[in-house]
Prior knowledge:
Elements: E1 14-16, H1 17-24, E2 29-35, E3 41-50, E4 57-61, H2 116-128, H3 134-141, H4 145-153, H5 164-178, H6 219-230, H7 237-245, H8 256-264, H9 275-291, H10 297-306, E5 328-330, E6 336-338
Parallel strand pairs: 1-4
Antiparallel strand pairs: 2-3, 3-4, 5-6
Helix pairs in contact: 2-5, 6-9
Amino acid sequence: MPAKAAKSAKAPKIYSFGEACKIASPYGFIVGPSINALGERDPNLGVITVADGKNTELKFSHERTESMAKPPRPKETAPASTSRKRKPDAEAPPIDPSSIILPGEEEGEIEIDQSCDQIRRKISNLISSGEMKVTHFQRECNINSNSYGRFMKLKGPYSGADNQTYEAAFIFFKKRELAGIKPQKKKAKATDPDKFDVSDPALELDGEDEGDVEIYDTCDEIRKKINAHLRNDGVTKAGFCRALGKMSPAGTPINAKSMDDFLKKKGPEAGGSSNCFYCAYVFFEKLRIKQGKPKSKFREEMEKIWVPEGGFPRCGEKAVWCRADARPYTDKYGRIFME
């Protein structure tokens, strides 16, 4: 049989510099000159040594590339869609907060690192954002309305620490935080800047210039009105304090601490000597007249009781002399009786 012809050595493929760089880029590479069999440098070729563990060499031609310093940018294929916007990554499925078990939860030994006031603020923000109603929140936390009401009325970092709402609400918010649920912010609504403006001279009350307007509301009623007013969109405590200051002849803004002190008190006469009480009454009376609202039934009853006395007394709580076997008490109109 005739001998088989020896196979000729396959010539190495010659790349462009850009093509060689693209192939070698996943591994890292070194660019160097091409040396022929005689040990001479080939002026037309270069070599890229690929750091792939095999030191694969890719020869490239200088004539097929415009620059050795920067590889040519590969051409991008036209996308099928006409839109050039990047599609968002698929969102991770939401985590159910109820599936999270906190350390010590099963043993009833939760470590709480937030004060009662902080928890109250979180609850108030949640409710005011509209994300949940109070009854929904109570069901989620498995607490009753009485415990919730008592806890929310308290003030102070430690006031309410023994209330079931404190621990239950902490667990509720902690699990939401770990689940990646961010608290919603209450959207500010556009408000009429003149809606609560009572500076019209036509609204001036009798005795206002002298700071001696007759009052026909108790301190508790004024506290209710202040708290309701502060919940209005666009109303801030600082702005309201400035507005109340204009109700006095001196025009001095009410101090925010003075308002807080007044709001903390309880009782028809508690806080009657406060300037906040007087100015708030004048403000709400002028606002009632501006809005054309009729007097409430309670207001009419207060007038029947206190008109002969020149209005509700502004002396605040006072001492009462009584027999040893008598017990004084104050009714909702601020009148003192003996039992």
